[in-house]
Amino acid sequence: MSFAEYLRQNGSDVLEALKIHVQLSSLSILIAVLIAIPTGIILTRHDRAAKAVLAVAGIIQTIPGLVMLGMGLMLFGLGSKPAVIVLVAYAILPIIQNTYTGIKEIDILYIEAARGIGMSQSQILFKVEIPLGLPAIVAGIRLSVVYIISWATLAALIGAGGLGDLIWTGLSSYDTNMILAGAIPASILSIIAGLVIDLIHRAVTPKPMRIKGDA
């Protein structure tokens, strides 16, 4: 059977797997963003804590995905819950790091100027630090999104479903069409997500000022 014929016969199953994969990845990224960005901001005010938190997050990143999923399975059982917990743990580090770095590397002159015109600390955060650090934050989110879409294929091993179901079932049954039906949409999804976030990154990145008379 050709791959095109396989898709004609099983297109609805592939679309359902894609839907689950998108939901699993989106939920994991959303939770990671809600945790990581505030944490990264808080860490910019506490350098000692930042070193410890980033070190722990870095250690988590070095643990193989299958090991983390196995731990999630033992602690939380089968299904999407352990998969989301593991994916969130993996997604957090790049966002925390980029949030922390993006804000810490802002030129102190901007902060001093904001204080000089009477801005409060919260005003400085929301009107100066976050806007200037946003390109770095978005870059961290992009990295996490691409990683999570790929790592979510492993979640099928603990019953979370998604495109990984097709890949792992295809591998176990030596069904090339099934493997491709899972791998190709996952790759395309990752590429599209990366391109969309690249556009967002360009939109939030400050443009250099043009001086009249410059070539």
CATH topology heading = MetI-like fold
Biggest β-sheet description: none
**Total beta strand runs:** 0
Please tell me what the overall shape is.
elongated
Helix and strand string, N-terminal first? HHHHHHHH
Give a structural overview:
This protein has 215 residues and is mainly α. It has a single domain, classed as MetI-like (MetI-like fold, Orthogonal Bundle). It contains 8 helices and no strands. Helix 1 packs parallel to helix 8 (176-204), helix 4 (80-104) crosses helix 6 and helix 6 runs antiparallel to helix 8. It is elongated, with a radius of gyration of 21 Å. It starts with a helix and ends in an 11-residue tail after the last helix. Residues 209-215 have low confidence and may be disordered.
Labels describing this entry:
single chain; 215 residues; mainly alpha; MetI-like fold; disordered C terminus
Quick rundown:
The chain crosses the membrane at residues 20-43, 52-76, 82-100, 132-158, 178-200. Helices cover 81% and strands 0% of the residues.
List the helices and strands and how they pair.
Layout (H helix, E strand, L loop, with lengths): L2 H41 L3 H16 L2 H12 L3 H25 L3 H9 L4 H31 L11 H11 L2 H29 L11
Helix pairs in contact: 1-4, 1-6, 1-7, 1-8, 2-4, 3-4, 4-6, 5-6, 6-8, 7-8
InterPro entries: ABC_transp_perm/SBD (IPR051204), MetI-like (IPR000515), MetI-like_sf (IPR035906)
Keywords: Membrane, Transmembrane, Transmembrane helix, Transport
GO cellular component, one term: plasma membrane
